[in-house]
Amino acid sequence: MSLLQTRGLTKAFGGLHAVQDVDFDLPEGEVRALIGPNGAGKTTFVGMLCGRVAPTAGAVRFAGADISRLPAHRRIREGMAYTFQITSVFARLSCRENVALAVRRRKGDAAREVPAALARVGLGDRADQLAGDLSYGHQRLLEIAMGLAQKPRLLILDEPTQGLADSEIEGFVALVREVRAEATVLLIEHNMSVVMDTADRITVLNFGEVLAEGTPEEIHADGRVQDAYLGTGDA
Amino acid sequence: MSDGAKAAVLHGALIAALFALHFVLPAYHHGNLARVMVLATYAMGYNLLFGYTGLLSLGHAMFFAAGMYGMALPVTHLGWAPGPALLSGLAAGALLSLVAGALALRTVGVAFLIVTLMFAQAVYLTVLYFAEWTNADDGLVLQRAERVLWGLDLSDAGVRYLAALVLFSVCLVLSLWLVRRPFGKVLIAIRENEARAEMLGYDVFAHKLGAVVASGTMSAAAGAAYGLLFGYAGASFAGVQYSILPLLWVLLGGAGTVIGPFLGALFTFYLIDITSGFTTAYMAVVGVVLIALTLFAPQGIGGEIRRRVWRGLP
User: Fold this and answer.
1) Does residue A60 contact residue A67 with C-beta atoms inside 8 Å?
2) What is the pTM of this model?
3) Which of A86, A127, A139, B104 could pair covalently with B115 via S-S, beta carbons 3.0-4.6 A apart?
4) Measured CA distances, A53 to A40, A43, A133 (Å)
5) What pLDDT score was predicted for residue A234?
6) Beta strand segments in B63-170, E
7) How confident is the model at residue A231 (pLDDT cuts 50, 70, 90)?
8) A45 lies in which domain range?
9) ipTM here
10) Residue A10 belongs to some domain of the structure
11) Nearest to A88 among B186, B196, B203 (CB)
12) Nearest Cβ partner for B200 among A52, A92, A102
């Protein structure tokens, strides 16, 4: 059964269709990568999934219920978590409090779960530091820890590896593989090696429409995708 | 010592010091401090919204006035006793903040500031318009007999000081409790990063509205108490100047610190009191001091304490 489903999802900014008539199905337990050239509509698309962007037309179903009309915070409460494309943490609060805010929202035990979530992304020894004092890469990891601490059914990560060092990317790939046992993951990603290493299936967006969908091997071999995005196939 | 214990000791010590001052201060400063405590309560209410939630209102005089007139009108026209009148002042503030908040929170940023300012002007003009009941600019004077609360004569300086101290202490403890609770921590999260707070699943609008009501009701408590303790309710308390004053006190004392509003109100009160003894151009001196403080301690007095002495200052 699909955990997440869209039908005819469309977003028009004036005459420009950023996302057009997208039917999308994401089965529970899958790691799905969403790729596409810049401006393909990826962030707008996930914005409509989690309620940050109001669609022009179409419906979103999550866990069997129509959530098209729910505001963002209600969708999060239904079991989504979202990390921003541009890192968004509480810069003047400690790392501990950042994660605790995520844990307390679902009435979790902050004292027990916060250290665990921080340790999981490798920030266990930085709980008392202000989030704004962390390096950019560490702030990204903190935001992922906040995502995990919500214990979501669907974790949406918008370009999580942007700005991470190579060693941190390795850690991130390992983390996603681990998370897949607990949550469905929707990953917007430009780093093709991360996509190939983590995704079960890939959806390719181009000019707001689904260009192709399939396993990493299928997508890698798809001539249309190569034309639109991957270049000459040496990615 | 844990942060919670430290906070309890610090704020408890302030209350104890204010109580001790009751017995030693000369009459002049004793009277001043009673007034400062009530004004600081107003500033604490303002601080809940501005300092902790990050919402800049320029209309809080309407809540102060709602409390003041919500108390004074029934006393004057219906012959209510001070106890029920205080409650009706609180209720007036709570109701007004709920309605004004629900409407004003549909806007953000500068628009929110303008809308709150407009609402407050509407309240001010309403007070003037219904001069038949409010006596407009001349205001309502409460007689001594109308100010006896549970057998305590609030026109007596000693009783007045202690009543102001009780009000101040209750609101100080309430503020401290509120900002350390999960609700208060969500307000801080909204102040720091509203989009992130929403995308953690928090209902930002509901929390902001809760903050407006808590803030407006505490401001109304101060307004009602001010009218009762000093025996007067006038339209000037609904004017724009009384919307700006709490902002000033909170900025000087340290926005987003529980102790800041008191420090700011005390500092400003005595700054004006002392400089006006030397020159009629005292506002010029006040202005220079304000500029200096903004340059060298932009986070206010409480903010400097937090930066230099104790980062965990609530």
Assistant:
1) yes
2) 0.91
3) B104
4) 16, 10, 30
5) 47
6) 140-141, 148-149, 152-153
7) low
8) 2-230
9) 0.90
10) yes
11) B196
12) A102
